[in-house]
Amino acid sequence: MPSYLLRILALSTLVIACSHSDAASSDTAKKPGAPAATTADAAPVTKAPDTISARADSGRVLGNASAPIWVVEASDFQCPYCKMWHDSTYPKLVEKYVKTGKIRLAFLNMPLQMHRYAVEASEAAMCASVQGKFWQMHDALFSSQRNWESAADPSPIFASLAKQAGANMDAWNKCTAQHLTLPMVQADRERAVAARVNSTPTFFVGNLILEGADVNLGAAIDSALAKNGKKAGN
Prior knowledge:
The chain is α+β, with helices and mostly antiparallel strands.
């Protein structure tokens, strides 16, 4: 399955340790005493047509196609630290770097096993992404996280959020019911695990990998932009 994000991650130096992020215990942790996140078990899925995969993939990329720097966020919609980053830093990042054409921001699904509804939330977002509504759903999921994470069944809440995001509900309901984007969620997670990402949120900026809600992402982006500028000037 072609993917912007998988191609980007393939170019990165992939060494991750947990730090100030949402994680569970794992034998693969690289930092002594620091817990590492584990991911949810795979579930039977219905294969998605390539057209759905392509639309869902492009829908979770934000920014101008000519932006010189990619920033990839590996995240979990039920992760409290991911919500913390979304609420405190994401809007500023969009204003300063995305809207000014400096970066393209992409979302990589990393649902953690400890989070009961993380996979379902990712599916809800990716089914909205098929219709070009990923970022609206992304914001809604994080904003309402405390409501749906404690629900006996979050499905009605997800459906309400998708409707508010402007999704065509017949198409969205079919997509979620048939798990048409679950292969993408699983492919994201498998690639992230192979890259030894074991906590959320984790960010890829060029060859840099940074983790945690309190990471200085702006400094990493500025450094990458400066390096890119020097290369362009050669």
